Amino acid sequence: MTLADFRTFLDHVDSLEFIQVDGTSVAPHFHITEVGQLDRFFIDCGGTVRKTSKVNFQMYIDVDFDHRLSIEKLAGIVDASIDQLGLNPNFELQVEFQGTSIENYGLEYEQGKFIFQALQTDCLAKDKCGIPDKPVKKKVALGQSACAPGSGCC
Prior knowledge:
Elements: H1 3-10, E1 18-19, E2 31-43, E3 49-60, H2 71-85, E4 93-98, E5 102-110, E6 113-118, H3 126-129
Parallel strand pairs: 1-6, 3-4
Antiparallel strand pairs: 2-3, 4-5, 5-6
């Protein structure tokens, strides 16, 4: 989800609810303590120089149980970050969240809730490293078997 997507979804929710990867809700007294742009300038294992940028929300939970960030307040924070920091609303959004360590998640929107999405590492130079492409799973129509008759796989 991009920052622009997130901002649009804020106009269509009745409450701010974030769901963690394990399905539990983030405590309703969370704070968004930072909004910023994270730039990575690096060289991959194949020797290609790369630069990526994302927008980052730092989400913080403390003992301030009465704190509730309103939709309007968060929309104002997002708007101010675009205006004052010059953030590109088309950059991908990630959430930095305190788990067992500092954890980073992507976001999806589903039925009025923002759902944390686990991020994965990847090799960006598989062709140069000799890492084979993952086999493509064969799509099978409902009611059909992917096994050849007599193959013993089913």
